[in-house]
Amino acid sequence: VRRKVSVVSHETFLYDNLTLYENLKFYGRMYDVPDLDYRISEVVSQIQLESRLYDQLGTLSRGLQQRASIARAVIQNPSIMLLDEPEVGLDPHGIIMMRNMLDTIAHPGRTVVMTTHNLEQGLDLGNKVVILNKGELVYEAFKHEIEIENFRKIYDHYTGMSK
To answer: What tens digit of pLDDT does each residue of 128-158 get?
Structure first.
């Protein structure tokens, strides 16, 4: 199961005392990634950190560590990705990079579940929207069923923000 699922969250799940390369090599070996050096080069290019490949993770900014976390999450080409506010710590350029990466990995057979408080980004990236309130599913719709300009009102209504 672990080979099919990956997670991006507030915690990077990376080792600060290892370089980006060493971290990706470790996770790639753990997941038996074929042609690992090529795959590392590929994901590092996608996150645009080629120049930081041999820097210790602990020396990188929070945003660069989040990019590294995204690389770690896609190294094994998972079937299921769980993204818990993956944009946290990213600058505008990093958010664009993340969106481009999500576009390139989206394909039939892969499920991406993302939580975000950025409603516009969530609607833009997703094809199905669910709203949870206190752990309960209170709203569910496909993107094409939603009038984007009214979604803020829908969200506020179901989360109690409209009171």
So the answer is: 999 999 999 999 999 889 887 888 899 999 9
Angle at 122 between CA 116 and CA 124, to 5 degrees: 160
- pTM value is 0.87
- Region for 135 from its dihedrals, namely left if φ exceeds 0, alpha if ψ lies in -120 to 50, beta otherwise: left
Token look-up 């005392």 returns 17
Cβ atoms 27, 72 nearer than 8 A: yes
Rounded Cα–Cα distance for residues 12 and 34 (Å):
23
**Are the beta carbons of 98 and 36 closer than 8 angstroms?**
no
**Per-residue three-class SS string for the chain:** CCCCEEEECCCCCCCCCCEHHHHHHHHHHHCCCCCHHHHHHHHHHHCCCHHHCCCEHHHCCHHHHHHHHHHHHHCCCCCEEEEECCCCCCCHHHHHHHHHHHHHHCCCCCEEEEECCCHHHHHHHCCEEEEEECCEEEEEEEHHHCCHHHHHHHHHHHHCCCC
> What is the spatial order of strands in the sheet that 5-8 belongs to?
5-8, 80-84, 111-115
